[in-house]
């Protein structure tokens, strides 16, 4: 199920990577975390570090982005790939949970396949955004 | 990322029903992470409490919910203390602008005079949220 989830989404990540939306806000906070400025929306190229609530939300996603940038030489593609791995792991865990809850591997496989291959879901990991 | 955490959360709820006891710690951790990713993640407390009430006696459900509440509220309280210490609001801004620009309350009031549905927000609010403006 994990492999199916990854296989269905990888082409969208590789062929159609996209940022857009409020990525400007998240990436600015992540840049500031990386340069030791803390959670701030000040322009990362400047010297100022005005504290901020966390961007559009609490600073979980900017902190995640900063962590991935630290270990990937500032790669946005790495963010998408790690998001995909986390999502695929969650689908695998949900499949296991459904199997234990229903006592049926067939039902679990059906639920897992819907989650892995749903056309409503497969393109989302191409975005660098917390909700995806 | 949030989708992954929400799926993890509901998987833990299903596992709780399979094991006939609420999995308090993983559920609380999922709520914490979801909330730090998006503030509406705190709404996951509702299905967690409902699951605890279904699975346990009222007394035990309250005990488990209290334990989860401590795990969920500790990091949020820590972040609130940080915000107070640096002298900023403990509440999020309704519309965040790049480069520390202040919240455009007048612009938001103007938008409120004509938008009639959430989809119009894309053309009105989101563009000013971008550095391309």
What does this structure look like?
The complex is a heterodimer of chains A (132) and B (133). Chain A has 132 residues and is mostly helical. In chain A, 60% of the residues lie in helices and 0% in strands. Chain A has five helices and no strands. Chain A has helices at residues 2-15, 23-34, 60-72, 76-102, 105-117. In chain A, helix 1 (2-15) packs antiparallel against helix 4 (76-102), helix 1 (2-15) packs parallel to helix 5 and helix 4 packs antiparallel against helix 5 (105-117). Chain B folds into two domains: 2-85, no CATH class; 98-129, no CATH class. The longest helix of chain B has 28 residues, at 58-85. At the A-B interface, helix 2, helix 3 and helix 4 of A face helix 1 and helix 2 of B.
Main features:
heterodimer, A: 132 residues, mainly alpha, B: mainly alpha, 6 helices
Distance between the termini of chain B: 27 Å
How many domain regions of chain A?
1
How many strands, what sense, and barrel or not for the largest sheet of chain B?
none
Strands of chain B, count: 0
Average pLDDT number of chain A: 91
How many runs of DSSP E, i.e. beta strands of chain A?
A: 0
Using the alpha-carbon principal axes, give the shape of chain A: elongated
Cα radius of gyration of chain B in angstroms:
19 Å
Strand percent estimate of chain A: under 5%
The residue-averaged pLDDT of chain B reads 90
Number of structurally distinct domains of chain B: 2
Number of helices of chain B: 6
